[in-house]
Amino acid sequence: MIRQFQDWIQKSPSESDPERSRFFTEGVIVLDTNILLSLYEYTPAARQQILDALRSVQSLLWLPHQVGLEFFQNRHRVITGRKKALEDSQRALRNKISEAKQALKEARSHTQKMLIRYAQDTEASSRLEKQISDKVISDLLSDLSSTLESQASRLRDYDISVSPSSDGDTVLTQVAALFGDQIASPPAPDVTRQRVEDASQYRFPNLIPPGFKDAGKGTALASSGDFLLWEETISHMADAESRSHLLFVSNDTKEDWYQPSGEGRNEPRPWPYLKTEMRMRAGAELRIETPGAFYRGINHFLHAEITETTYAEIDRAAAGATPASITEAAAVRTPPPPDLVTAALDAAGLEEDALVCSIADTAHRSLFLWWLIGTTAQLERRPLIDDEPDVLFMPATRQAAQPDPNWLPGTRLHLGEWPYRSSSWIAPWFVDTLNASSVRDRKILQGLAAQQLAFRPRDV
């Protein structure tokens, strides 16, 4: 029995696992689409180091047809998005400089009005007009503007040209050379149709990983991408008699690939079901790693040269890819998008700067902001923003047993502000947030949490 269910009782994967080296030296390595598309996000120096590192495992790489298809479908979008971001940064800089000039003029005008209104000092007002004239303001900001604009213009050096073919796209040509002929042929149409039916009719409704979080997003075919990749990979490993280890590398850590934390685990882990299925159907051992861990593994086992600066870029690119859903663990390591933060704070009517800055613990601050994003959307306080992730955790729960040793009883919240004092448990990060809030903000936050909790039946 223990042998049959070994994957469910083993610890979460660690970079120090004794068997890990075999995945880097004698296994098959599959890079998810997001790993290949991330190559467009790095600076030229970091990209070159990463490509050099990948060449050290080139003989182990294999490209599923689904990954190749998604790479070509999304390549143009990623490059265009990068180009737009670079263009927008220069436009935003010019707007900020213009706003700075206008702000100084308005500050001068305001001061002049106060001098005349309360001091009747027209002479001081006139002197101020000469001392801080429009020309003085322009001259004052001229050098600063030139410095900023010269640095912003350098961003053009980091642009990547876009073409329907491979012309001018150095990333594409290097990726093509990296895989060579180690790529899968397209599955037969009837095979793809059967796999899509399996996903939409059986696996997704029963929440069997991978890919069930994509159910209902577009057509059945479009929402089955992860499962099609999974089936291709299992089929390949079943035929690869000389390879018994598969290393899958992906930025995707949502709940249809990773089992949420709990039951003694502080962090999510790849679903044990995936390891069991790979072993049962293909006779292979499975290991799933994020890009940071993967490149550190190449560095450790194969001595590829990757600098700390490049590792920082890898982590930034991974964090920039906001998951489709946010768990507590994902919230801690995923910075919330500024536009969503602003929209949520405005929708809740909170004192933005004072509250956010007063939460000292960075993890608690991130948890609070992601929860606020989720609850203002759920309670329809604001419209959803395109591609906004689902937030899957709450600051309180109603149940008899304490959900975690760190959670606190509802009696810690103020009488009259919290309706579930005798029947609830409160997350420590939410208590921390309330303690850092003003009386006004505290009432708003407790009200939002209570309304959200009312949507969920009480657990017994």
Describe the structure concisely for a colleague.
This protein is mainly alpha-helical. Helix content is about 55%, strand content about 5%. The protein has 19 helices and 10 strands.
Explain this structure to me?
This protein is mostly helical and 460 residues long. Helix content is 55%, strand content 6%. The protein has 19 helices and 10 strands. It has helices at residues 6-9, 20-25, 33-37, 44-55, 65-119, 122-131, 134-153, 170-179, 189-203, 225-239, 272-282, 291-302, 308-320, 328-333, 338-348, 352-358, 362-378, 428-435, 439-454, and strands at 28-31, 245-249, 258-259, 269-270, 285-289, 325-326, 390-391, 396-397, 408-409, 425-426. The chain has a 3-stranded parallel sheet with strand order 1-2-5. A 3-stranded antiparallel sheet has the order 8-10-9. Strands 3-4 form a two-stranded antiparallel ribbon. The longest helix has 55 residues, at 65-119. The radius of gyration is 27 Å and the shape is globular. The model has no long low-confidence stretch (mean pLDDT 84).
